[in-house]
Amino acid sequence: MTDPAPETQERPASLARHPARIVTRPVMRFQERIYLIEVWHGLVITSRHFFVNLWRHTRRAIGLVARAGAVTIQYPDDPAVVAKRGRTRHRLMKREDGTPRCVACMMCETVCPAKCIKIVAEESPDVMIEKRAKIFDIDMGLCVFCGYCVEACPEDAIRMDTGQVEMSSFNRQDMVWNMQELLGNKKKDPAANVPRL
Amino acid sequence: MKTVKFTINGKPVEAKENSLVIDAAREAGIEVPHYCYHPALGNPGVCRLCMVEVEGMPKLQVSCRLPAKEGMVVRSNSGPARTAQAASLEFHLANHPLDCPVCDQAGECYLQDYYMRFGGYTSTMREDKVHKHKRLDIGPNVMLDSERCILCTRCVRFLDKVTKTSELGIFNRGSRSELLPYPGMSVDNPYSGNITDICPVGALTDKNFRFKVRVWYLDRTPSICTGCARGCSVEVHTNTKRPWHTDGKRVARLLPRHNPEVNDYWICDEGRYGFDYIDAPTRLKAISVMENDKLRGLTWDETVAALPAELSALCAEKGSSGLAVVLSGTLSNEDLFAARLLFVDTLKAGHLLVKTGPDQEGEEDALLRRKEKVPNLRGAQALGFGGRIQESSWGNILDGITSGKIWGLYVVDRDPSAVWGEKANGALSRLRFSAYQGVNVTHFADSARWVLPSCAYVEESGTFANFQGHVQKAKAALQPLGDARPDWMIWGAFVRALGGSFPFDSARGIFTHLTETESEFKGLRWDGLGKDGVKLAGSREPQTAGAA
Hints:
The structure holds 2 protein chains of 2 kinds. Chain A is an alpha+beta fold.
């Protein structure tokens, strides 16, 4: 371990323009140092929360107010609750005949601040559609879930309303979702490439 | 011609009498929206977009047909003018499909641009759009979408006036008017790509570029086309940030750049699509040397230590008259200067060849294309090749090799087997020394002892003099591929290795040296070449005949 820098050390020149804010650490009093009293203080706080919540739940149960007290969710045993308008994992939309709505206009790829979208366009056999995506990959490992792609899409082809927030994988390649997976045609199995230990 | 003074939007301007108001406005930095008017193609006045208000005239005027007169007061941004422009634009959009998401023109489309700047924003059209032909294959390079066409007739006029092939016309009447090729015709003239550039909307798009990459991903670098001795001004559009769009190819397209001295607004299809070799799989990326029938990779340091030593030892042993050097007109003035310093002044090679042979000649026509398919023959001439420095020929070199007089052959960017055919195989095996320095692999490179990768012209800055003696600068648009280096840098290092002096570290430095020492380059400046380029001393107006 290296020695901590002495407090009076001169600030580097690069920080000279930013005035330093001195933070003084509070010194522990005797009462805090003997520990037992502070443990008791902590218990008081916990108990206060318990009884306040008990009161709020009771109040709702007997019909006094509509709002309940705080709830603890047993994540990950219970599923995470995501607000309906929350931005979650993307999906690609389909036309009525099942083909992707995406016309590969590159608006989402252009607007994406994380540069996580990769599209390659190709000629569509349907002359009225003209252009479609050959490759449409989103790297969830890079995505910042800003929702700009949804805003930019002129065809309503991409949405972030799946409610899915768990996309972890065991390697970086598996964080990339391809077009068939985003369309829901193929299931993405995060456990597909579990490393052998 | 008399000049007249008048005002546009309150700004005083000066123009030739009876020149067009729209031109005067553009020169004054005021953009009047327009589609049908093109400086090289005339002003039919069909798009009705360039409406301006003129004091004393009861009605609005189209500025592309309005001659400039003394004391005129023109307004392009007044209420009535703006209303008329917005109304015309609304008509242009009446049948336009608004398929910008799938349209390649999006991003450089004048319908988009003018709509944002001059448009009315709310359409009052309630009628159904008239549907026309979509995705019509009208030629080897051009795709037509009639629905997107706004009937400005620029392409029709280009094919009538410039190429004189007249393949396209406007058919039917009223809102059903449609741009189509004449029955049985296809737009397959050697300049067909130009109609995709002059099309202000996405009706005519380039098949080669179609759906590849969005135009806003591209970087633009002013450069020149090295496809023939014309040396048209072009803009190189490169896609390096999102390589997946163009399959990893860095050059996405070449577009002509307006240069009244050289190519006006146009470029031929051969030049426009002739950039594939830059990112082709045949590009040379590493140095190799054949030793005991085995290829060995080398670094530049090792090469600079070995190759010039080998050459000078052979020159001393067998006489430098037995060394033949085949240079190419694709080299820039700076490259040729370094070549002259190495092969002529230092090694004193017996045979030198720059001029084009059957390997670098092709079709020519009266418009732009030249027979010699290299950009810098005039530059080579200005540097003394073919004059002070005697040039050999392909035939002489072959004879020399077969008779055993020539022991070494150094070829740059050319392929002897393309000229000599079958005869080459036997001859080349008799060489003691053979080196190929170039951009792409050729037949000769397969058999050469030394193979050195050099930069394509988009990877190094350089100057080229076209057949009129017009010197233009091509700016580097890309990083060199692999181990490739500019030719002048390679030869400069060889000169230094042989004990000579080569105090340059940039093409700019060499060019400045040329302007100080070479009579033809006197008076030129690297920065003074600008956008359009400058003529060589020997090719300037009064003395054209004698010198060139």
